[in-house]
Amino acid sequence: MTTTGKSGEKKSRNNATNNTVSWTTLSSWSRQQKLAMIAGFAILGLLVALSACSKQSSQPAPVGVSSTASNPATPAITATPATSPAAATLPAPAKKTPKKRPANVTYSDPNSGVSFLYPRKFALTSGDKALPQLAGVDDVPMNFVQPGGVAVATVALPDSSYPGTDFASAFFDVNVNRSVSQQECAHFAFVDNADGEPVDAEKVKIGPTEMEMTSNFSASAMAQAETRYYHSYENGACYEYVLGLGTEGFATEGGVKHVNRDEVFAKLEKMLATVKINPVEPEHVAEQAVSGIAGGKE
């Protein structure tokens, strides 16, 4: 009994000792394992943090965010785009080009209904001041077969139009007579013989208008004058257009040449070709008739 009891006691002590050693060993291994795991997690966390910082630093800074926000002592620098020398120089303001005035001017008279174009550099007079003159000749008369003519307008060429020639003056003249019938308008007052018969007129077409035409020429030792008269009947009135050319001196003296008469008359006929006769209001017709009776130019 005693022996058995000791033997059992020894076994119990041995078991207790073994259990103690085993627990102690297990307890010690678990603590190391935990430390190792904690250390592993710490290293893993450090690696993740370093990886995140590396990715963040490699990304470009957002547009509009100053890199100096973390360092207040560093002054902000604003990026300025580079400019070329040509762009840096401001272009000179463009000069305004003056508008060219038209070479021709339109004349229009509501009383007679006459309108036409004439060169701007030519001189125009109208109404009672429209008194055409030629070198060595007084006022050029109207050529109606009945009195009552009224001056409308005269356009004179500049005296210097043909330098180096015997050119002295030239004009384009417009008159109107409401006291002349359509049949009488086809005739002219000037006569070419002692019998006093009217000068035979020539039918011509200037522009779109058919007209009657006659001419007159006078000359002296020092001056020559040529006039061409045109008549047309419109608006219940006889319209007269006069083209005149005057020359002076002897063309052979001092190297002076004869002016090209055809060229001058062609320039005058260009103005005649632009003539238009517009309808006239009754009050203007009455006013013009009174002017013709009171003292129209003849």
Task: Give a description of the structure.
By secondary structure, the protein is of the alpha+beta class. It folds into 2 domains: 1-53; 104-295, Jelly Rolls (Sandwich), CATH 2.60.120. Helix content is 31%, strand content 28%. The protein contains 5 helices and 12 strands. The protein has helices spanning 2-58, 85-88, 182-185, 261-273, 282-295, and strands at 104-109, 114-119, 123-126, 133-134, 137-139, 149-156, 167-177, 202-206, 209-219, 223-234, 237-248, 276-277. The strands form 3 sheets. The chain has a 7-stranded antiparallel beta sheet with strand order 3-6-7-11-10-9-8. Strands 1-2-12 form a 3-stranded antiparallel beta sheet. A hairpin with a 2-residue loop joins strand 4 and strand 5. The longest helix is centred in the N-terminal third of the chain and has 57 residues, at 2-58. It is elongated. The model is unreliable at 1-27 and 63-70 (pLDDT under 50).
N-to-C order of helices and strands: HHEEEEEEEHEEEEHEH
Strand order of the largest sheet: 3-6-7-11-10-9-8
Shape: elongated
Report the CATH topology name of the largest domain: Jelly Rolls
Which CATH first-tier class of the largest domain would you pick?
Answer: Mainly Beta
Q: Give the overall average pLDDT.
A: 77
Overall radius of gyration: 59 Å
**Spans of at least 5 consecutive residues with low confidence:** 1-27, 63-70
The biggest beta sheet reads: 7 strands, antiparallel
